[in-house]
Specification:
The chain is α+β, with helices and mostly antiparallel strands. It is 26% helix and 25% strand. The strands form 3 sheets. It has a 6-stranded antiparallel β-sheet. Helix 3 crosses helix 4.
């Protein structure tokens, strides 16, 4: 009897409540931790790609998640890099036949590194204009999927998929650039599709 009483006292002192006869209370789920309408947790570094085009010259649109509520994106011509709400992004890009796909790097440390870089970028380069330039030059112009590509390249030492495109310029020779297309971001060997939100 003394051993049982001592065990209950020890459990009470260490855990706050006796272990015998008490089931653990279920924890309430935090609605901000999951993508809307899914069981998929939001993680820093998640790559969001939508077929709802916002960027001139590219098919689709992309953004990178920086925490459980926010992402970094540039919405197209006339916009600058900005931090926006994930729920708003999902709402804006899932009407009609539009969808949002969530891609994730296999290593969470890589996702966190990319997310930190993206957050740093939007704080320090919020005046950068929308436009196409070399992938490694992020200080003058950028575009939606370039922000994601740069975040992984500079923040996580990961080189996501790229493509070479020719961009016509009025009155000048066409420009050939290596670009990161939104739909290519999920094609890397260490990147997986974890959710599609309709």
């Amino acid at each position: 009897m003394k051993k049982v009483a001592l065990s209950l006292l020890t459990a009470t002192l260490v855990f706050g409540t006796p272990l015998v006869g008490h089931a653990a209370e279920p924890k309430a789920e935090d609605p901000g931790v999951y993508y809307p309408g899914t069981n998929t947790k939001i993680k820093p570094g998640d790559i969001l790609v939508t077929n709802d085009t916002s960027s001139w010259g590219l098919t689709g649109h992309a953004a990178i998640v920086i925490d459980t509520q926010n992402l970094v994106e540039i919405r197209g011509d006339g916009y600058n890099p900005e931090k926006n709400d994930i729920d708003d992004f999902i709402d804006d890009h899932t009407s009609g036949s539009s969808w949002v796909k969530v891609y994730r790097h296999d290593l969470s440390s890589k996702g966190k590194g990319a997310a930190k870089w993206a957050e740093w970028y939007v704080k320090n380069y919020s005046d950068v204009e929308y436009g196409f330039s070399d992938l490694l030059d992020y200080d003058d112009t950028t575009y939606c999927s370039k922000i994601v590509w740069d975040a992984y390249y500079f923040g996580a030492d990961v080189e996501l998929e790229t493509d070479v495109v020719t961009i016509p310029v009025a009155g000048l020779p066409d420009i050939t650039l290596e670009v990161a297309k939104p739909y290519d971001l999920g094609n890397g060997p260490d990147v997986d599709l974890v959710e599609k939100i309709d």
